Amino acid sequence: MDLLDDVIGAYGGVERWRRIDAISVHQRVGGVLWALKGVDGIINDSTVEIRLHEQRTWLRPASTPDIRMSFSTDRVAIETDDPAPRTVEELITPRNSFAGHVLETPWSTLQLAYFSGYAMWTYLSEPYSLTLPGVYTEQLGAWHEQGETWRRLGVRYPDTIATHSPNQVLYIDADGLIRRRDYSVEISANSPAAHYSTDFLTVEGIVLPTKRVVYGRDVTGHRIEDPVLVSIDLDNVKVS
């Protein structure tokens, strides 16, 4: 059995994930990123829903209960919520809108919808998304952290999947759980990040972490403890 098989087994097995269509959560987010980008407070308290078998995400901020953010790879929109969605504002080919951005470049609400939409889809669909067509994985060397030895899995995503960067590295503990992921945020000046996952929960037979913390990453591959870039705390997890 290879490392990817170990991971998928630890999260409930591929057949169980295939039977799921949607995952929804309530999230509270923090960290310095949102203020840096001029979008603090918009999604700090919100619900998120993803479609597992296509890259779709909806975010519903608690502060605007009649409005939702809709994400797909080639379009993001601000819409009135169900049962009769109406487009208030949209952005086509949203990734192109980040051209020339530096770390301090502010985001529009639609750009926030794009970033949060692809990020939460990446997180909530994993590890099932690692089995999708065009996703390539390979086992890398071991890494020692927090008194543990973690196996590393290199991932390359195809152009058809929107995510932080095409190449990412996952760190796997002895139980097969993804404890850390490294990436560079392409749409924010390729900022290097070390992203940690804890507090794993089993819902309907699949496993999801309910706490995530993202730090900067130095040239040696270690996290920069201060400041916390992003924190995500999840509850009210539902699968269907």
Model description:
- The protein is mainly β and about 240 residues long.
- It has a single domain, classed as outer membrane lipoprotein receptor (LolB), chain A (Clam).
- It is about 15% helix and about 45% strand.
- It has four helices and 14 strands.
- Strands 1, 2, 3, 4, 5, 6, 7, 8, 9, 10, 11, 12, 13 and 14 form a 14-stranded antiparallel β-sheet that branches.
- Strand 3 and strand 4 (about 65-70) form a beta hairpin.
- The mean pLDDT is about 95.
Q: Profile the largest sheet.
A: 14 strands, antiparallel
Alpha carbon gap, first and last residue: 29 Å
Contiguous runs where pLDDT drops below 50 for at least 5 residues: none
**General form:** globular
Structurally, how many domains make up the residues? 1
Based on DSSP secondary structure assignment, what is the total number of beta strands? 14
In percent, how much strand structure appears in the residues?
over 45%
- Reported by name, the CATH topology is outer membrane lipoprotein receptor (LolB), chain A
Q: In CATH, what is the class?
A: Mainly Beta
Please state the CA-atom Rg, rounded to the nearest Å. 17 Å
Strand-pairing-aware structural class: mainly beta
Task: Write the H/E string, N to C.
Answer: HHEHEEEEEHEEEEEEEE
CATH architecture: Clam
State the share of residues found in helices, binned by percent. 10-25%
- On the 0 to 100 scale, the average pLDDT is 97
